[in-house]
Amino acid sequence: MDSYSRMVAFFKVLLPLAALAILATLFLLSRGVEFNAAIPFAESEIAGRLRDQQVTGPFFSGTTSNGDEIMVNATLARPGGTDRPAEATDVSAQLKTAAGGGMTLESDLVQVLAREDLARFSGDVRIVTSTGIDVRTDQLDTALTGLSGKAPGTLSGTSPFGDLTSGSMEFSAKNEGGPLHVLFKSGVKLVYRPAENPE
C-alpha cells in the first residue's frame, strides 16, 4: 500500500472521530435552558393589559362607496364600552379622494362615537392637505361614513400663501367622488408671504 492510500485510510477514520468530538463538546458545554425565566413585562403593564382590552399597533384600511381611500394606524387602540367610547392613541390617518387630492390627520387621541357617526381627534391635532396647508388645532370631528369634518376651535399654521389662523374649519367633498374642499371660517387671518424669486 502506497503512502497516499495509507493517508486517505487514516483520514477516513480520524475526520469522523474529530467531528464526533467537536459535536460532543458543543452539546456538553452549551448553556442549559432556563424553564422558569421571567416574562419581560412589568407587573403594572400585565395588570393593565388584563384589566383593559387593547390592541397594540392597529392598522385599518378601507375604501368608501365613492372610491375614496382611508388608512388609519395608531400606537394603541381600546374597545369602547357602555359608558365610554372606543379610543386610539398616537393616531395617523390618510384620506385620499378618488379625484386625487387628500389630507393627513395626526392626533394624540381619537375617540370613536359610533352612534353619532363621529371620530373625534383631540390633543395636538395636525391637519396637512395635499395642496400644502398645514394647520394645528385642539379638536377635529370627522364623519365615520364619509370624508367630511369640522374643527370647532382655533386653528393656526401655514399655507402656500402664508401664515394662517382661523376660528374654525370645515372640509368635505362638495360633489360625490370629487376633491376635498377646505373652508376656514370665523375670523380668518392670512399673512401673505410672496414666493421668493431665485436669481
Structure report:
This protein folds into 2 domains: 1-30; 54-192, lipopolysaccharide transport protein A fold (Sandwich), CATH 2.60.450.10. The chain has helices at 3-29, 43-51; strands spanning 55-56, 59-63, 69-73, 76-78, 86-96, 102-113, 118-129, 134-143, 148-151, 155-159, 162-166, 168-173, 180-185, 189-192. It is an alpha+beta fold and 199 residues long. Strands 1, 2, 3, 4, 5, 6, 7, 8, 9, 10, 11, 12, 13 and 14 form a 14-stranded antiparallel sheet that branches. A hairpin with a 5-residue loop joins strand 2 (59-63) and strand 3 (69-73). It comes from Pseudooceanicola lipolyticus. This is LPS export ABC transporter periplasmic protein LptC.
Largest sheet: 14 strands, antiparallel
Radius of gyration: 31 Å
Number of helices: 2
Structural class based on helices, strands and sheet pairing: alpha+beta
| Top CATH class of the largest domain | Mainly Beta
What is the H-and-E element order? HHEEEEEEEEEEEEEE
Helical content stands at 10-25%
- CATH homologous superfamily heading of the largest domain: Lipopolysaccharide (LPS) transport protein A like domain
Q: Would you give the CATH topology of the largest domain? A: lipopolysaccharide transport protein A fold
Give the overall average pLDDT. 85
Low-confidence stretches: none
How many distinct domains? 2
Second rung of CATH, namely the architecture of the largest domain: Sandwich
> What is the end-to-end distance?
91 Å
Q: Overall 3D geometry?
A: elongated
Give the amount of beta strand, in percent.
Answer: over 45%
Protein name: LPS export ABC transporter periplasmic protein LptC
Organism: Pseudooceanicola lipolyticus
